[in-house]
């Protein structure tokens, strides 16, 4: 393997290792034993799901307990605003404007992080038996310290994600989430076998769960690699001018145009109110928090609807039929049987809508059906397809980018030797 690719992989692994080290750095002034006990008792609700996405950093009240979710929430808000206001959408497409766009997201991340950090800090007062709960120092001082600590942790995670994207392999933010979920797999396996040894679940149920995981992973890989290839022809003049170059004779459109974004966005949207509600001692707020429990049917119904919504929303941003039609017309290309220009654009819109429908349905089913099956089997722990979906999609996407880097270096080598 080329040294450049190896260096990029090592850089990626190094930043992910730094992320895992940060997960063990606690916020000063808290009783981590009390917090660990609390999360052990809430492993099957929203806190358990949030803890899983953070790589168990929440149960240690690490400085990265809020994870990368504030950044994702800020990105969701900006994407919605960019789709609503044309000037903001235009800013996003320009090179200099994109820098300003990302800067706004960073400022929004700071605001969201501070709000969530204050909510978590106040909520810790209700834990434990002391007057300040799990807090060992003065309440006012702790809120300031914890807010600054969590803010620094979240900004560090955002920086790590950006460094992986620029200097490593794959999408940095997705890999950070991937690392957090994967880090919990050994404990999940050990906990599952412990349930079997204590006769809480049978070996038959364990085999059933394993079969669900294998089928889910297989379906994800099959769909993620699936694409609709629309044939493209070029005029004789263009072909004669490019005899020594390869011209792609089809337009590949993936069945899942939005990738891993919809389940991540949906999880972030549902986790944000849960994080705030869990810190409240109000009876009505606590009932709403229980209603939004990830181990309940209503939460998974909302997850299904949000995944469908974000699939359509992000697909409309990621795939632009108008630009493709204009580029084809400019390059002398056309789809056989379809008129160039508006005819090509309408044809591509129709194809994209059909693929998005099935892709959104697939994401919604994968995000909720495994939980329904496991719930029906009576397994006493949380298992959802969202985590599996994120892990498999990020792994497939990262492998694709590594392969692309390998092929690119091969072409550079062939070009250098004159072959």
What does this structure look like?
The protein has helices spanning 3-22, 32-41, 46-53, 69-84, 86-93, 95-123, 139-167, 172-182, 185-197, 203-224, 236-241, 261-278, 283-291, 297-318, 321-330, 342-376, 385-417, and strands at 227-231, 233-234, 250-254, 333-334. It is built from 17 helices and 4 strands. The chain has a two-stranded antiparallel ribbon with strand order 1-3. Strands 2-4 form a two-stranded antiparallel sheet. The chain starts with a helix and ends with a helix. With 419 residues, the chain is mainly alpha-helical.
Concise synopsis of the structure shown:
With 419 residues, this protein is mostly helical. The protein has helices spanning 3-22, 32-41, 46-53, 69-84, 86-93, 95-123, 139-167, 172-182, 185-197, 203-224, 236-241, 261-278, 283-291, 297-318, 321-330, 342-376, 385-417, and strands at 227-231, 233-234, 250-254, 333-334.
Index terms:
single chain; two-stranded antiparallel sheet; mainly alpha; 419 residues; 4 strands
Give me the Rg, rounded: 24 Å
Order of helices and strands: HHHHHHHHHHEEHEHHHHEHH
Mean pLDDT: 78
Helix count, DSSP H or I runs of 4 or more residues: 17
Widest sheet: strand ordering: 1-3
> How many β-strand runs?
4
Structural class: mainly alpha
**End-to-end Cα distance:** 20 Å
Beta percentage is under 5%
Shape: globular
Sheet having the most strands: 2 strands, antiparallel
Low-confidence stretches: none
Helix percentage range: over 70%
């Amino acid at each position: 393997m080329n040294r450049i690719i190896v260096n990029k992989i090592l850089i990626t692994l190094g930043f992910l290792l730094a992320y895992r080290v940060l997960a063990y750095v606690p916020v000063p002034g808290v009783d981590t034993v009390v917090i660990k006990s609390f999360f052990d008792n809430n492993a099957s609700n929203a806190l358990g799901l949030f803890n899983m996405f953070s790589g168990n950093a929440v149960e240690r009240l690490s400085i990265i307990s809020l994870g990368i979710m504030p950044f994702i929430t800020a990105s969701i808000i900006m994407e919605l605003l960019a789709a609503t206001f044309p000037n903001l959408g235009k800013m996003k497409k320009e090179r200099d404007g994109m820098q300003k766009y990302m800067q706004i997201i960073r400022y929004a991340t700071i605001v969201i992080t501070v709000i969530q950090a204050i909510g978590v800090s106040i909520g810790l007062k209700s834990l434990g038996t002391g007057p300040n709960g799990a807090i060992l120092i003065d309440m006012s001082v702790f809120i300031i310290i914890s807010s600054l600590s969590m803010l620094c942790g979240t900004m560090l995670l955002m920086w790590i994600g950006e460094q992986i994207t620029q200097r490593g392999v794959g999408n940095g933010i997705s890999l950070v989430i991937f690392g957090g979920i994967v880090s919990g797999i050994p404990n999940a396996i050990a906990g599952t076998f412990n349930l079997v040894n204590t006769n809480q679940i049978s070996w038959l149920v364990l085999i059933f769960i394993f079969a669900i995981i294998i089928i889910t992973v297989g379906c994800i890989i099959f769909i993620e690699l699936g694409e609709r290839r629309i044939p493209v022809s070029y005029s004789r003049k263009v072909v004669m001018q490019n005899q020594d170059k390869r011209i792609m004779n089809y337009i590949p459109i993936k069945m899942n145009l939005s990738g891993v974004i919809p389940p991540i966005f949906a999880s972030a949207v549902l986790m944000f109110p849960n994080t705030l509600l869990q810190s409240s001692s109000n009876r009505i707020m606590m009932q709403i928090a229980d209603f939004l429990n990830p181990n309940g049917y209503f939460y998974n119904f909302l997850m299904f609807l949000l995944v469908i919504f974000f699939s359509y929303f992000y697909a409309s941003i990621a795939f632009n039929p108008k630009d493709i039609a204009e580029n084809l017309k400019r390059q002398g290309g056309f789809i056989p049987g379809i008129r160039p220009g508006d005819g090509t654009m309408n044809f591509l819109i129709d194809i994209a809508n059909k693929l998005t429908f099935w892709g959104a349905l697939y994401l919604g089913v994968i995000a909720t059906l495994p939980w329904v099956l496991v719930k029906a089997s009576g397994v006493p722990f949380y298992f959802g397809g969202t985590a599996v979906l994120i892990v498999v999609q990020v792994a497939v996407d990262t492998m694709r980018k590594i392969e692309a880097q390998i092929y690119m270096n091969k072409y550079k080598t062939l070009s250098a030797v004159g072959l």
